[in-house]
Amino acid sequence: MNTETTRTQIMQHAQRLVQERGYNGFSYRDLATLIGIKTSSIHYYFPQKEDLLLAIVQQYHARWLAAIQAIDTGLSADVKLRAYVDMHRQAFCNTERICLAAALAADLASLPADIRKMLQGFYGANEDWLAQVLEQGVREGSLDMPGDVRIAARSMFAALQGSLATARLFNDSERMNDLLQAALSRQ
Amino acid sequence: MNTETTRTQIMQHAQRLVQERGYNGFSYRDLATLIGIKTSSIHYYFPQKEDLLLAIVQQYHARWLAAIQAIDTGLSADVKLRAYVDMHRQAFCNTERICLAAALAADLASLPADIRKMLQGFYGANEDWLAQVLEQGVREGSLDMPGDVRIAARSMFAALQGSLATARLFNDSERMNDLLQAALSRQ
DNA sequence: GTCTATACATTGATAGAC
DNA sequence: GTCTATCAATGTATAGAC
Fold it and tell me: In chain A, whose CA is at the least distance from the CA of B104?
């Protein structure tokens, strides 16, 4: 079973390049050279660069949501939070890449409108999940949330996204351990 | 007194475009059209695009540091923190732009090495200042910091940078009010 | 499906007139 | 200082052979 189809390879490399260089920081030529094909072959699968971007973002969103939903709903809030933060930490330590959504959000004005909508969906889904867990933590008494859990969830997700960028900037995986303190210091 | 020299205009528009579209999301032609000159005139001031980027980052860094240092050192830690967070909030509400350093950090792999060094300097300077203020807060008893203030400072700055990106993504200035809660909830 | 060939616009950059 | 003119390289994209 070979999952290394051309289409798969294109998407893998394209996702990585967006995360490393931004949407405007790579070309079909870069992709073609990396894979060892011609640019016209990429156009066969993704006629326009926006088609490629759309496919990447959809796949990323679906996989990330699946990973979140794989966190056992029966767990306590603080364990869920640790698992969630660990997802970010491991994603970074394995790839040294920031979040795809954060990479695209930086170049926002240069992206098509439908991508912006998808990014909002990605951010919103994460914030919703986090808010739900924080609320559970308050109910369970394991988390001390002074204000609105919705706002706390926003701040927490922003801190996670920002920490990934900083960890890469300093090429310092150790910084990803700060994430735990950042997210869980209110316990 | 006319500060709207060509050089100034170039730098202003270029900084804005980096913050909106990323370093690879605009061209000398874009700049020339915006200002009403020819691309060769831009090359007169900034022979290479990297020269332009360097000048912008240096100016941004200097101005931001000056703004931080303008915060009265005699103030209490929590007032200093509020002033610092308010700098971010107002910067966003006036311009709807994210931090220049955060915009560049996203496209990191496509930037020259000396720019990476400057970004590290910018992040480090902010984290240092924050850590110092947090330590003051602990001494004064106005802040309850469970762990290392250095780590807390990193998380706080990451949260600020991330919140700016989210506020822009959702075109929601209200989110910048979350910053206060995010940064000061440990009071 | 992948290629060759090609089109056509854009990009960063330079030389030299004014 | 700003312009015209020009450049080679790169960018996205298409047509059609195999």
Answer: A106
Please name the residues between 101 and 140 in chain B that touch chain A, using a CB distance below 8 Å: 102-103, 105-110, 116, 119-120, 123
Amino acid at A16: R
Task: State the CATH architecture for B6-184.
Answer: Orthogonal Bundle (1.10)
Q: Where are the domains of chain B?
A: 6-184
- Whole-structure pTM value: 0.96
Protein-covered nucleotides of chain D (CB closer than 7 Å) are: 1-5, 10-16
List pLDDT tens digits, range A18-47.
999 999 999 999 999 999 999 999 999 999
Q: Which of residues 22-61 of B touch strand C (CB under 7 A)?
A: 26-30, 39-40, 43, 47-50
CATH of domain A49-184: 1.10.357.10
Which nucleotide is at minimal CA–C1' distance from A44?
C1
| For residue A2, pLDDT beyond 80 | no
What amino acid is encoded at A19 in this protein? Q
Full DSSP string of B135-178: HHHHHHTS----S-HHHHHHHHHHHHHHHHHHHHHTT-TTHHHH
